[in-house]
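Bit of a strange request maybe. I'm writing a small parser for structure token strings and I need a real example to test against, not something I typed by hand. Could someone generate the tokens for this chain?
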Amino acid sequence: MIRKSGFIAGLGLLIIYAGLISVGSFFGADIEIDNTLSGDMQRANLLRGISLASLGAFGNKVLSILIALACFTTAVGIVTGTADYFKGIFKDSQRAYVITGILACTVGVLVGQLDFHSIIVIAIPALMIIYPITIVLILLNVMPEKFASHKVFKAVVIATILFSIPDFLGSIGSPLSPEGGILDWIPFSTYSMGWVLPAVFVFVFSNLIDNKKQVHS
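Reply from user aminoacidic:
Good idea to test on real output. This should exercise your parser:
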């Protein structure tokens, strides 16, 4: 069921992002000459401007509905998932579920009062450290158990966290953010994905060690 739902969700996201990329490419030249669109506009204003330029007022309404639906489904998933997690921690407590849900909704409403740019500024540092770990955990969970033992899980997650820290520090403009040196040699580090190859390497290496121990035992 996870594979099927993941395939459907992945296909849908592929279509959406491919569409956004093609739209951005199509309007790339127009942005330089059109007074209504500017390359240094905020993301939300730029997307709204493109929808107005391509579909007029109708495009603006459709965009508003789509963004509202996307935000609603994401919020419901995050709130219920978090509430269910804390429910499990507190021995299947329904009270913990309700309290967590109310707190999460309250925080969401408060953050929602900020403008789009401010929300992105707040969210990016958190996503820089959370997304890599989430992606790795999902991939490890769908793999056969013989390739994803407890030790492999721990080793890969630790490696992912360590190599995500530079991206996190860089996103908050921390003076502790390492620049240059060995980081320049890590593939994909310029795209904030320097954790990918280290995680793959640790995954393969950990499995090799596990297999050798099983053979000797």
